[in-house]
Amino acid sequence: MTTAKQMAAARARASVYAPGPVGSYLTYGFIGLSLLGFVLVFLSGFYGLDLLRYPVALIVLGVAAVLSGVVLRVLWKRKHHLAVAAEYANPASDVPVSAE
Known about the structure:
Layout: H1 3-17, H2 25-47, H3 55-89
C-alpha cells in the first residue's frame, strides 16, 4: 500500500472516533458569539436587566465567546491530527473504512 493510500486509510479510521472540525475559525467564533447572545437575552429577560448599561462587560464577554469558539476548533483539530498520526503509525488493519 502506498503512502498516500495509507494516509487516506488512517484519516478514514481516525475520522470515526475523532472527526475533524468542519467549519472555519470564523464560523466557530460566530457560533460562540451567537450562543452568548442567546444566553444574555434569556438572562436579561429573566432578571429584568438592561444589558446596554454595561457596554464594557458586553465587549469583554463577546471577545471571550469568540476566542472560546476558536480555541474549541483548535482543540478538535489537534485531537483529529493526533488520531490520524496514531492510526498511521499503528494501523489496526490495512483495509480502509468504507463510507456508510
